[in-house]
Amino acid sequence: MSATPFMSLRRLAAQRQEVEQCDLCSAPLREGHRHLLEPAHRQLVCACDPCSILFSGHSDRRYKRVPDRILHLAGFEMPDELWDSLLVPVNMAFFFRSTPEERMVALYPSPAGATESLLGLEAWEELEAANPILREMEPDVEALLVNRVGNIRAYYLVSIDRCYELVGLIRSGWRGLSGGTEVWRTIDGFFKDVESKAKQVGGPPAAHA
């Protein structure tokens, strides 16, 4: 059975106590190493710098290099009606274009892992028309990450491995029906880290509801 992105990240986390190795050539990995994605199975692998460079800019190969840019999409337009039309049952999700499936995919983190939500094409097209920067997302390896929990309205263009990192944090830390104080503290820390590394693009920050 092919490893899921969460399984891959859990394996990566377990290896942090040891010297991590490149999944392609077994060379030792530096801290903050790059990842590759196998789009056909949505599987992430760790890569050393030479191996990751081999897959840079080649969309016809088995793996694609995961970029490391993070953009805070200030002034992002997503009214509540449009969010509701995307049919995501929770207020946190990420969206990416799958080349193997030739469609947009909507996933949200849950205690069970990354769960897919049905995504109407018309709803996504409306969102893309209101926010043209979404057309710049690199298929498979970049995603729109949305956080609308409580009064937060935050939108980021991030690498797909950051999205699955969030999925792993929630799956491993969730307790009971509400998740527990600790997991929400971890989620808050995750988004603070994303914000600290993000380059702001667009207009003034979107107002909180």
Please summarize what this structure is.
With 209 residues, the protein is an alpha+beta fold. The protein contains 6 helices and 10 strands, in the order H-E-E-H-E-E-H-E-E-E-H-E-E-H-H-E. 30% of the residues lie in helices and 25% in strands.
Write the SSE topology.
Elements: H1 5-14, E1 34-38, E2 43-47, H2 49-54, E3 64-65, E4 71-74, H3 80-85, E5 92-98, E6 103-110, E7 113-117, H4 121-130, E8 142-147, E9 154-159, H5 160-173, H6 181-197, E10 199-202
Helix pairs in contact: 1-5, 5-6
Describe this structure as you would to a colleague:
The chain has a 7-stranded mixed β-sheet, with helices on one face. A 3-stranded antiparallel β-sheet has the order 2-1-3. The protein folds into 2 domains: 5-65, no CATH class; 71-202, no CATH class. The protein has helices at residues 5-14, 49-54, 80-85, 121-130, 160-173, 181-197; strands at 34-38, 43-47, 64-65, 71-74, 92-98, 103-110, 113-117, 142-147, 154-159, 199-202. It is built from 6 helices and 10 strands. Helix 1 (5-14) packs across helix 5 and helix 5 runs antiparallel to helix 6. It has 209 residues and is an alpha+beta fold. Strand 6 (103-110) and strand 7 form a beta hairpin. 30% of the residues lie in helices and 25% in strands.
